[in-house]
Amino acid sequence: MGSYTFSPKPYNDVADTTFGPIEKYIPANDNVPQDESGASAGFAVGGERGQYIGLRRGSGEHVVPPRPAWPERRGDFLQTYRGGKFWPIDPRSEEVFIEDIAHSLSLQCRYAGHCHRFYSVAEHSVLMARHLRWEGMDVALWALLHDASEAYLVDVPRPLKRHLPGYKEAEAKVMAAVCERFSLEKEMPAVVHDADTRIIGDELVNMAPMDWHDRYAGQELGVTLRYWSPAKAETEFLATFEALMECRARGMA
To answer: Which domain of life, per UniProt (predicted)?
Structure first.
């Protein structure tokens, strides 16, 4: 099985590995299989034999199904790819998982889908991380995860995002949880912010020509879009993450 590595020598830009089996990660929250009293056993959820949802057979007595013992949190939760729960308005770092981030971002297209070919947020993030690898492992990891909040809040285009103060507040909280989870500084490095703007110049090749594109002429980051499929983008995202985490573990700056 191949892997993506960061080293002083040239390397292949294609990886054939995934981050590993999901089972090695601790399940988020209280996600456990239903016991035999559940619907999967042929009975009403939370009920007994001979009992239907909301009505006890033959008695006419209304039965209120028991409420799940979920923790008190702000807002509601969304179900993640792994089968976990994540509260976008009340995020916690222990509920952030790299598999959820990689999978979700690999399925989201940049520019709200207004481009010639599918180009995912995951690929965008990988291209930035690999371009900035010589700035240090923490900077490269920040670049890889700079849009991680969009795995839980979806990718909102810049022209709309600046008019959604509620979204910006939620985004800041989710990114704080992401940074805590992966031991990153809370403030995005300036070089990552700059690269996130300059890469637009490279990505315009995937859009219909318009006059506003001229502002990015000569400011491109210098990356080449690969137009990976969602599955490929997810694999490359996880491989890049693993390589960066391994370098950090070895003490590489």
So the answer is: Bacteria
Q: Is 248 exposed, middle or buried (0-12, 13-18, 19+ CB in 10 A)?
A: middle
Its pTM surpasses 0.90:
no
What three-state secondary structure class fits 136? Answer: coil
- Distance in angstroms (rounded) separating the CA atoms of residues 9 and 12: 10
How far apart, in Å, are the Cα atoms of 97 and each of 23, 78, 152, 246? 12, 14, 11, 17
Strands 78-79 and 55-56: unpaired
Q: Which domains does the chain have, with CATH numbers?
A: 29-69 (no CATH), 75-249 (1.10.3210.10)
Distance in angstroms (rounded) separating the CA atoms of residues 227 and 118: 6
Sign of the CA dihedral 105, 109, 110, 111? negative
What residues contact residue 203 under an 8 Å CB cut-off, 6+ apart?
110, 111, 115, 119, 124, 225
One digit per residue, the tens of pLDDT, for the chain of length 253 reads: 456 666 544 434 444 443 344 344 334 444 444 443 333 333 333 333 433 334 444 555 555 666 666 668 888 999 999 999 999 999 999 999 999 999 999 999 999 999 999 999 999 999 999 999 999 999 999 999 999 999 999 988 888 988 998 999 999 999 999 999 999 999 999 999 999 999 999 999 999 999 999 999 999 999 999 999 999 999 999 999 999 999 999 988 7
* CA pair distance 152, 171, nearest whole angstrom: 9
- Find tokens 């979920």 and name the residue: 70
